Amino acid sequence: MTRERRILHVDMDAFYASVEQRDNPSLRGKPVVVGGDTRGVVAAASYEARVFGIRSAMPMRDALRRCPNLNRVPPRMSHYQAVSNEVFAVFREFTPLVEGLSLDEAFLDVTESLQLFGDDVTIAREIKNRIRERTQLTASVGVASNKLVAKIASDLEKPDGLVVVTQDNMRATLDPLPVQVIPGIGKETLARLKRIPVNTVEDLRLASDRDLEPIFGKFTRRTRDRASGIDDRPVLSSRPDKSISAEETFDKDLGDRRDMHRHLLQLAERTAGRLRAKDLVAGTVQIKIRQADFTTCTRQRALRPPGNGTETIYQAAIKLLDEWLAEFPGIPVRLLGVGGCELARDAQPDLFAPELPAGGSQLDQAVDRIRNRFGDLSLGRARSMDPGQIR
Fold first, then answer.
1. What are the residue boundaries of the structural domains of the chain, listed by start?
2. 42-70 pLDDT, tens per residue?
């Protein structure tokens, strides 16, 4: 007989904002958002800010309009990564089967850890305790027999929650929830479901094929299975990167091609450096362009052979941007992004390809070493700098 899996979904509570409140006692108990200036978006909101309806990905202007006393803090991604490493170290003290979804959440399969550490609830409580002791932060945990239900459960009693879903209380827990807790149900699908009407998970679970097939098509059965709490996906201890990118929202819209090229080089440097840090090469380069009216478009082109050199990424990105500028001349640009996808391990792919050392050119490798030691801002190409930055 197959043993029922025991899965935890651990989700740090308002992670970036909570780190800032921890590090700066004057922010505790106050509405806080992490993000850029008024032209950017909210990266994270404290629970005090959420009372005002502020959520992540909301334009910063809207957040400030909702809460004039809002405390805005610039993001410190390297610091959040360091705190995340502490949290994930706690996870791995209980199981090697840790599937990270982001810096602040992960699935853990503790099925094989029960004999060593006690039942799943005991493990969940101990994980919460160790995170609090080591980081002074709280986490919410969902415990269930699969990933889908564990993730739903972790969100039910935030912050600092612990929700356990068993076969006995599965329907009582899931059925009353709004149908949009089921993954894959976005605004358009939700609007169509409400016309049936399907408003809760129970409504979805009991709806007929005749009602659901026009909406979900061949995914009707899988959708009903999700509403029934059925999910057989395993916890994967390593998730390959699908893409690596960097983007920036500008204080003032860019209208000058030279300024765009300069910022594009900065973004290409960041993306290429991240690729090299993970020993990856990109088979495709992408750029992201957001206009002043928030219209967003992407362009991409293949790299043959795949690469991770700064100049290689930059030249591909420049061609894509110039093609877009030829198509849309004179349109101000609010945001630029550069990314690489179709990723593979760094290796010399072609016997007759230009021979570049693994990890990029000698210049790239020298830049990487200096930045690893002294920080990202310690060194940069003159072409990527504003004339006022050059001394």
1. 171-227, 243-389
2. 999 999 999 999 998 899 999 999 999 99
The pLDDT of residue 112: 93
| 34 Cα distance to chain centroid | 15
Residue 351: pLDDT over 50: no
CB of 33 closer than 8 Å to CB of 46: yes
- H-helix segments, 136-200: 147-154, 170-174, 187-194
Q: Which residue has the higher pLDDT, 165 or 38?
A: 165
Residues 6+ apart with CB under 8 A from 48: 29, 30, 31, 32
Q: How far apart are CA 277 and CA 270, in angstroms?
A: 10
C-alpha to C-alpha distance for 269 and 384, rounded to whole angstroms: 9
Catalytically annotated residues: 105
In the block, tokens 């935030």 appear at 158
Residue 338's H or E segment, with its range, is: strand 333-345
Tell me how far apart the alpha carbons of residues 122 and 119 are, in angstroms, rounded to a whole number. Answer: 5
Which pLDDT does position 2 carry in this prediction? 56
> Hey, how many other C-beta atoms are within 10 angstroms of the C-beta on 251?
11
**At the fourth CATH level, which superfamily is domain 243-389?**
DNA polymerase, Y-family, little finger domain (3.30.1490.100)
Q: Considering only the top CATH level, what class is 171-227?
A: mainly alpha
The mean pLDDT of the chain is 87
Distance, in Å, from the CA atom of 389 to the CA atom of 146, rounded to the nearest integer, reads 53
Q: Which of 383, 355, 378 is nearest to 368 (CA)?
A: 378
Residue 276: which residues within 8 A CB-CB, separation 6 or more? 308, 346, 359, 360, 364, 365, 368
pLDDT of residue 365: 61
* Separation CA 366–CA 360 (nearest Å): 10
**Strand pairing of 280-291 and 98-102?**
unpaired
Angle between helices 257-277 and 310-327 (to 10 degrees): 140
* Residue 19: φ, ψ to 5°: -60, -45
